Amino acid sequence: MSASQWRKAMNAGAGRTAWPRTAPSTAPRASVAAPVAAAATDGARWLRWVGARVRARHVLVLAAVLIYPLFATPFFTFQVGAQSLALGLIALSLTFLAGYGGMVSLAQMTVAGIAGYMYAIFATSGTDISLKWPWWLAVLLALIVATVCGTLIGWFSVRTEGIYTIMITLAIGVAFFYLVQQNYSLFNGFQGFQSVKAPTVLGVEVRDPVLFYYLALFWALAGYFGVQYVLRAPFGVALQGIRDNPRRMAALGFDVTAHRVAAYAVAGLIAAVGGILMVWYNGLVSPGSVGTSWLINILVIAVLGGMRHPIGPFIGAVVFVLLQNFAVDLVDRERFNLLIGGVFLIIVLFSPDGILGWWAGGVARLRARSAQGRLGRRVEV
Amino acid sequence: MTSLTRQCLRMLAVATMVVAVAATADAQQVVKIGLLATLEGPFAAGGQDGMRGAELAVKERNGMVAGKKIEIIKASSDAKPDVAVNATRKLVEQDKVDIMVGPLSGSEGIAVKNYSKSQPSITFINGSSGAQATTLQDPSPNFFRFNTEGAQWMVGLGEYAFKDKGYKKMALIAEDYAFPYSQVQGFMTEYCKLGGHVTHKAWVPLGGKDYSSVIAKLPADVDALLVVLGGADAVNFLTQYEQAGGNKPMVGGSITVDQTVLNFKGKRRESLLGTPSAGPMADSYDGAEWKKFVADYKANFKDGFPSPSLFAYVYYINMKAALDGLDAVKGDLSGGQAKYREALKNLKLQTPTGVVTLDENRQAIGTTFVTEVAKAADGGFYNKVVKVVPNVNQRLGMSKADFDKVGLGSRDVPNCP
Lengths: 381, 417
Known about the structure:
The structure holds two protein chains of two kinds. By secondary structure, chain A is mostly helical. Chain A has helices at about 5-15, 40-55, 55-70, 75-100, 110-120, 135-155, 165-180, 210-230, 235-245, 245-250, 255-280, 290-305, 310-330, 335-350, 355-375; strands at about 200, 205. A two-stranded antiparallel sheet of chain A has the order 1-2. The radius of gyration of chain A is 22 Å and the shape is globular. In chain B, about 40% of the residues lie in helices and about 20% in strands. The longest helix of chain B is centred in the first third of the chain and has 27 residues, at about 1-30. In chain B, helix 9 (about 230-245) links the parallel strand 9 and strand 10. Chain B has two domains: about 10-145 and about 285-335, Response regulator (Rossmann fold, 3-Layer(aba) Sandwich), CATH 3.40.50; about 150-280 and about 370-405, Rossmann fold (3-Layer(aba) Sandwich). At the A-B interface, helix 4 and helix 13 of A face strand 3, helix 3 and helix 4 of B.
C-alpha cells in the first residue's frame, strides 16, 4: 500500500473531508506544465511530478507572499508579515503534533522559548551573562539544545493520552516559566535578556524589515514543505496510523512510543527555528515570552487556522496578529480583548476545523452548486 | 427610483462631511500623541488609571496646544516588554504618531527605550516605568523621563530611619527583581553612609505566599526591618510575622504601605503607627497645587479611585511635559523634532509636587516625600508627610564617577553588614 493510499484511507477512516485534491479541470495549470512534454529525463519526471501537484492557488499564494513587501509598509512587512510567519512556524509544530500525531502539547512555545533563551545566552545581548559567541554557533547550539529539550518533553509525555498530555505539557511549560523568572545566574530572572543582537550578515542587520520578512518566509516555507514531506514519508504515514489506532499499529509491529517521541523531536526542531526567529524579531526574551498566555496563544493560533493542513497555523497566525494589532482600533480601547475573544469564539463555534474548515466547506458547497448547474443547464463553469 | 436617489444623496452628504472634517482637521493641524499603558494583565487597574492621568493633562488644555488639536491614540500592553514594543511600533509606524507617551512598567520601559533608537525622528516620553537602567545604561537621545524612579523614591528615608527613628541595625526583606533592587539602593546608599548596618538580606520571589522560612532566619539583634514588598505580599508577610511572634518595627518601600496595609486588621495593627516609607507623591500632602490636582481628578473621573494612584499621577506629569514642551515651541515639530527636544531638555516642569528638571540623560530631578503612618480623626490610618526632599537626582547625590563605581543596585549592591 503506497503512502498516498494510506493517507486517503486514514482520512476516510477518520470521517474527515479530504483536503480538496482535484481542482476544476478548467483551472489554469502552473506554467511549469509546459516543459513536461520534453524527453522523459529525470528532470522532466520531477517537473511532471511538481506539475501534477502545483495548483493555481499555490502559485498565487507563493507569488503573493513573495511580492508582499514591495507593496506593504515596513510596519506591515515586519510586525504583521514576519511576526505571523514566525508565530505560524511555532504553531505549525503543534499542528504537526496534534493534527497528525494526536498529541496536543502546550509546551511548544516553551521549546521555542528555550531556543530563544539559549541564543540570548550564547550570542550577544545587553546582559553580562551572554557569552558573545559568533551568531552561527549560537544558533546551532540553541537549535540543538531546544530540539533535545523538545524530545525530552515528548519522552516524558507520550505515556499519557488526551487531556493528561495537555496537563503534563502545561505543567512543564509553567515550570520553565518559573525557572526563568526566578533563576538569575543563567536566565537573568524577571528582566530576561534585553537588546539581544540579531546577526549582521554582509553588513546588513537581519532585523531589517524586508530582509527579516524573507528570512522568516524562507523558514516558514521550509517548515511547511518539510512537514508535507514528512507526512508522505513512511514515518509520517505510520504516525497518522498511530493517531487513528495505536493498538492496531502496535499489533502490526510499529513501535508506537518511538514514533511519538520522534514526532516530538521533529516538532521540537520546527518550534526551535520559530523561537530563534521570534527572539530576533523581538530583540529580547523574557519570562513573559514563555508565560502561560503564550503557551495558550499558540494553541489558539493552531486551532483558529485549522489542524487539517499545514497551512492552517499560518492562516491562524495572520488572523491572530491582525486582531492583536487592530482590534484596539475597532472597539472601545478598554474593551478590545472582548472583540478578540468574540472572534475566536465565533470561529471555533461555527467551524470546529478553524478557518480551513470554512474554506473546505465553502469549496464543497460551490462544487455541489456548480455540479447541479452543469446537470441542469449543461453550462461549463 | 426615489429611494435610490435618496441613497445617493445621503452618500454624497456623508462624503462631503468626511471631506469637510478632513479639511478642517488639516487646517487646524493635528498633533498625534500615542499613549501606551497596560490595560490587561497584572497592572490593568493601574494602567487604566494611568490613562486617566494622561487624559487629565490633555483636558486641562482643552485638547489644544498652540492652535493645534491634540489627538490621543491609545494602545495597550500586558506589562510584557515584547508586547509593549509591538504596541509602540504599531502606534509609531502604522498610526504615525508624532510623540509617544508610555509605557507603564520597568522592563517595558527598557524595551521601548531600545526601540526608540530605531525611530530617531519621533520623541518618546516615559509613562510610569521606573527602572534605573532605562536612562543610566545606554540612554537613548530621544527618550525622556519626567518622573523620578525607584531609587530616587527612597531618598531621605535612610536618614529619617537612622536619625529620627534611631534604627542603627536593620534586616531586609524584599522581592527579587529590579524594582526592589533600586529601592533598596536608594535607601541603603544614604543609610550606610550615615553609619547604619543592614546585617541580613532576604530576597523572596515575587508573589510568594509562604514567608515562614524567611522569618525564622531573621536575626534577633536588629532594630527594625526594611520591608520592600508589594502591598498584598506585605500583608501576607505581616500576618505570618505576627503569628511567629515577631515584634520589630517596620520601614516600608514606596509600594509597601498602601491601602491594603493601612487596612490591616491584625493584632499588631497599632504597631503600624509610625511606620515610615517614601515615594514620589503623598495623598495627604497639603500643597495647593497637589490639592487642585486631586480635586480635578475627582471631578473628571467619577469612576476613578478615591484619590489618584501613583500611575495616574506619573502619567499626568509625563503627558503634561509633552504638552508643555509643544507649547514652548508653538507646536513646531519640524527638523526631526530638534527644537521640540531642545525645549523638553530645558523644561522647568511645574508639577503638583514641585518643579521637575532633567539631567543630561534626560531623566527627572524631582521631589521625594517621606511619610509615616498616622491615625486620622475617624480612626483610619493614613500616610502623613513628615519630610519633603526636593531636587533628588538619579545618582542619589553622588558624582558620576562615584556612582559608576557602585553601579546599579542588585542583590549585593550596596552592602554594609
